[in-house]
Amino acid sequence: MERTNEIYQAYVQILKEELLPAMGCTEPIAIAYAAAKAREALGELPEKVLVQASGSIIKNVKSVIVPNTGHLKGIPAAAAAGIVCGEADRELEVIAGVTEDGICKLRDYLENVEIRMEYLDEGFTFDIIVTVYKKEEYAKVRITNFHTNIVLVEKNGNIIEQHQVESEGEEELTDRSLLSMEKIWEFVRCVEIDDVREVLDRQIQYNTAIAKEGLQGDYGANIGSVILKSEGNGIRSRAKAMAAAGSDARMNGCELPVIINSGSGNQGMTCSLPVLEYAKELDSGEEKMYRALVLSNLTAIYQKVGIGRLSAYCGAVSAGAAAGAGIAYLNGGDYEEIIHTIVNALAIVSGIVCDGAKASCAAKIAFAVDAGIMGYDMYRNGQQFYGGDGIVAKGVDNTIHNVGRLGREGMRATNEEIIKMMIG
């Protein structure tokens, strides 16, 4: 694959579009971003706020701590943080610069301003509308389909910015239909490292820092620390513990940023941190480490194309399978070993549901990473799952297609029931 090839250029761009920095769980941050943009359009501090959100957004905001808010949870906290302290031009780092004084102002704002929430059902899994009011004036911002995709900015009936949204899709991004495991494998072997070094270096730096913080601090259920205490310090335990510890910290108010994958910090950490641990253990060298990260990240992105940004299907599963692929590569695995690792891993843990962002995500991540490693161990020992074994189909791309169908279509009703349980 030549550097000038359309697919080569697309894959580089896809990595740049997906491996973005974010402060905190991305759904509350998307609300904060929309709120900051709405306040910016209004031009002054609003005296009333309406947040309308789809069920999957509500599910992922309900139980997670919003960073830089003094450990507050929920939609009102996220919206108020964006309005009072947000810097809209920083997008998913919109509330990264909040000071102690800002937290005091935020708390005062929450006590004195009505922030109302409504369930929004207009056919989009990912949908947020924030409307802010001051006397007779109002401003409205809508984000649809992915976290930074602003499709409407309106003030007092005047359209400032608008983009047509007819269906759930990401037409604004590089064409994801160009992804396939065969082409990803070809790209991994030929990519010029300098074309991806910057985004990967940032992923290594950010995600390693928050994982270490998760192991050192007291966050949530401390799953990362529990793994090391109960399973020892071997490489398999460390790979699971680092990914889990990053989630421990991120789900429970740590104010360090992460590099996301497919719109999720948990997925970004899951497909990178285990690979980094194995690269150190195996003394793989810098170049092989980078190529393993390219493989893992693109494999995770490819799986999420079919599933969608938000689903009742736990995203840690796809990221854990992707980490298994990266680990197989670091161990000298060829294409056959890598694709069978992915299929095996998906066959093992594809039943895990997503019931929102919260402390237990760290435990799900640990099991997904373990499944990725087991998927590789199985094939290395002459064992595999075959087409016809449940949702496993003949060919890795067909299996990934089945998982996407399961996550997007098959679990739609499951997602609705989970949302009803969570929000009554």
From TrEMBL:
Keywords, A to Z? Answer: Lyase
Q: Does the keyword Transport apply?
A: no
Which is an annotated Pfam family here? Answer: SDH_alpha
GO MF terms listed in the record are: L-serine ammonia-lyase activity
Q: Which InterPro entries match?
A: Ser_deHydtase-like_asu, UPF0597
- Any keyword Nucleus? no
Where in the numbering of this chain does the Serine dehydratase-like alpha subunit domain appear? 189-419
UniProt lists the family membership as follows: Belongs to the UPF0597 family.
What is the designated name of this protein? UPF0597 protein OCV99_07285
Read off the lineage from the record: Bacteria, Bacillati, Bacillota, Clostridia, Lachnospirales
